[in-house]
Amino acid sequence: MTGTQALQSVQFVTVKGKRLAVLTAEDWEAMVEWLETVEDVQVAQLAFDQLKAAGGDRIRAGWIEWDEAEKELE
């Protein structure tokens, strides 16, 4: 299921005067996954835009060597 499908599957109920959205846990998980993918695409696009602006020079774009990144993750 896509994020859009999950959004379209929402049902609404009114409880104590408040309108609430109700969806299944599976639909909720699909929406979270969809939003994470959107965020990942945005991060990648920004990185490639920075690389392009730096004329393809990874160092000027602020990219670090893989070994350095790996050390930061340890």
In words, what does this structure look like?
β1 and β2 form a beta hairpin. The chain has one domain. By secondary structure, the protein is α+β, with helices and mostly antiparallel strands. Strands 1-2 form a two-stranded antiparallel ribbon. The chain contains 3 helices and 2 strands, in the order αββαα. The longest helix is centred in the middle third of the chain and has 29 residues. The model has no long low-confidence stretch (mean pLDDT 91).
Low-confidence parts = none
In total, how many domains does the architecture comprise? 1
Please report the number of helical segments: 3
Order of helices and strands: HEEHH
- In the sheet with the most strands, the strands line up as 1-2
User: Helix- and strand-based class?
Assistant: alpha+beta
Q: Roughly how many Å apart are the termini?
A: 35 Å
Beta-strand portion reads: 5-15%
**What form results from the Cα inertia axes?**
elongated
**Rg, Cα atoms, Å:** 20 Å
Share of helix among residues?
55-70%
- The whole-number mean of residue pLDDT values reads 91
Describe the largest sheet.
2 strands, antiparallel
**Strand elements, count:** 2
Brief summary of the model shown:
The protein is α+β, with helices and mostly antiparallel strands. The protein contains three helices and two strands; from the N terminus they run H-E-E-H-H.
